[in-house]
Amino acid sequence: MGAELWRLGENSITRHDVDIAITKSKSKLFTDVHSLVFQNLSKMDKQFLYAMASDSRETAVHDLKIRLNKSSSYISSYRSRLIRTGLITSDSHGTLSFVLPYMAEYLLIKKYEDELR
What we know:
By secondary structure, this protein is mainly alpha-helical. The chain has two domains: 2-37; 42-116, Winged helix-like DNA-binding domain superfamily/Winged helix DNA-binding domain (Arc Repressor Mutant, subunit A, Orthogonal Bundle). The protein is built from six helices and three strands. Strands 1-3-2 form a three-stranded antiparallel β-sheet.
């Protein structure tokens, strides 16, 4: 984001400049990182992450079982797999969150775009 602010080249930074820099930085992050990570995921990995993205911060494992209609062992398997890949983390017992910033936002956008196709 700092690079985007620098490119704006003004003597002072306004709230509008920050908003522009955030938008440009997120777009670059989505293109250069999130989309590359996403394209290499299995269908179930994607479904698991989509199910997590609907929460504002962390996701309860119990909620994932309900949303995905899967057993505890099935959820545990994908939970472990996605933790090993570095995409999610277990913040506390029974909860998960994304490691990459803005991943939930990217997934919600991606899911919406896929549904339009």
